[in-house]
Design a protein that fits this description.
- Helix content is about 45%, strand content about 15%.
- By secondary structure, the protein is of the alpha/beta class.
- It has two domains: about 180 residues, Rossmann fold (3-Layer(aba) Sandwich), CATH 3.40.50.10490; about 120 residues, CBS-domain, CATH 3.10.580.10.
- The strands form three sheets. Strands 2-1-3-4-5 form a five-stranded parallel β-sheet, sandwiched between helices.
- Helix 3 packs across helix 8.
- The C terminus is likely disordered.
- This is Arabinose-5-phosphate isomerase.
- It comes from Desulfobaculum bizertense DSM 18034.
- Keywords: CBS domain, Isomerase, Metal-binding, Repeat, Zinc.
- InterPro entries: CBS_dom, CBS_dom_sf, GutQ/KpsF_isomerases, KdsD/KpsF-type, SIS_dom, SIS_dom_sf, SIS_Kpsf.
Length: about 325
């Protein structure tokens, strides 16, 4: 490392970069207004595809936005403006919507194709840092992605501005998930090769715990059941009879609520304090179905039983999501 490099406080510089980008996002967030709703209505009402276009760094951001839209229920693809000007506009239909990105709003290659797109009957949503720009004037609605400064020390490389564009694209995509009533099952169908898609499509019998299940006989004293609950490591203890039929469940939450309401009697049988007739599932249900149940009922562990209600396994939320192996961001 050179002496000059050693003189720099790299952590401070790195934090300053992030601070500038965070500051830019705050400004974009605070300027969200009715134009965002208009853009959402245009994109949500689209019966064709959302065609994302831009050039340079904005084009790279546009490719990511198009990928996010497509994977979350809004059919989308990226169109390079130059290729569009040389024949690729033939892929477009009047029912499509264009999402055009340019920080300056004065990108010649992009603005050159916008009048043709309007002639074809397509609506245009612009994302630009200049609401007085040509792009803004050629758009049906323009979203303000302007930032006060770039995070690049030279003030030249698109950094905070491209982060703002990407964040606005994510905001639109997130809202469209709800608009389109897009669910986890839909996500799984569009990600058959991804880790999350594969897990959500799998039957719970392939993901559940089957060995050394945390169980206790329904006649066991509460004090001993607590020890078994702690040793089980799942945050829940299945309460069964001698034949293995599920009678109830005791969870960390149950114990916490008992302690908050007073000192529990440690000598009573666990069946006197357990949750009777607990929520349970069959082995052939999909992970996606179980995940929906967990979210609706606000639980993290569910016993799995056979047709005779005998305990055959237990499934934890982390089993469905890969125990930290899955990544939800690029």
């Amino acid at each position: 490392m050179t002496p000059k490099a050693q003189e720099r406080d790299w952590l401070t510089l790195g934090r300053e970069t992030l601070d500038i980008e965070i500051e830019g996002l705050r400004r974009v967030r605070d300027r969200l207004n009715g134009s965002f709703i208009q853009a959402l209505e245009i994109m949500g009402g689209c019966t064709g595809r959302v065609v994302v276009t831009g050039i340079g760094k904005s084009g790279l951001v546009g490719r990511k936005i198009a990928a996010t839209l497509s994977s979350t229920g809004t059919p989308s693809f990226f169109l390079h403006p130059v290729e569009g000007a040389h024949g690729d506009l033939g892929m477009l239909r009047s029912e499509d919507v264009v999402l055009a990105l340019s920080n300056s709003g004065e990108t010649d290659e992009l603005n050159a194709i916008l009048p043709a797109l309007r002639t074809l009957g397509l609506k245009v949503v612009g994302i630009t840092g200049n609401l007085q720009s040509t792009l803004a004037s050629l758009s049906d609605v323009a979203l303000d992605s302007g930032v006060e400064r770039e995070a690049c020390p030279l003030g030249l490389a698109p950094t905070a501005s491209t982060t703002a564009q990407l964040a606005l694209g994510d905001a639109l995509a997130s809202c469209l998930v709800t608009w389109n009533r897009f669910e986890k099952d839909d996500f799984a169908q569009r990600h058959p090769g991804g880790s999350l898609g594969q897990r959500l499509r799998a039957c719970v019998q392939h993901l559940m715990h089957v060995d050394d299940l945390p169980t206790a006989d329904h006649t066991l004293p509460f004090a001993e059941a607590l020890v078994a609950l702690d040793a089980g490591g799942l945050g829940a203890l299945a309460i069964t009879d001698a034949s293995g039929v599920l009678h109830g469940i005791l969870t960390d939450g149950d114990v916490r609520r008992m302690l908050c309401s007073g000192t529990p009697d440690m000598n009573v049988a666990v069946e006197d304090v357990m949750t009777s007739e607990p929520l349970c599932v069959r082995p052939d249900v999909t992970a996606a179905e179980v995940l929906d149940i967990m979210e609706t009922r606000e639980v993290t562990v569910i016993p799995v039983v056979d047709s005779e209600k005998k305990l055959v396994g237990m499934v934890h939320l982390h089993d469905l999501l890969g125990k930290g192996r899955l990544k939800f961001s690029a």
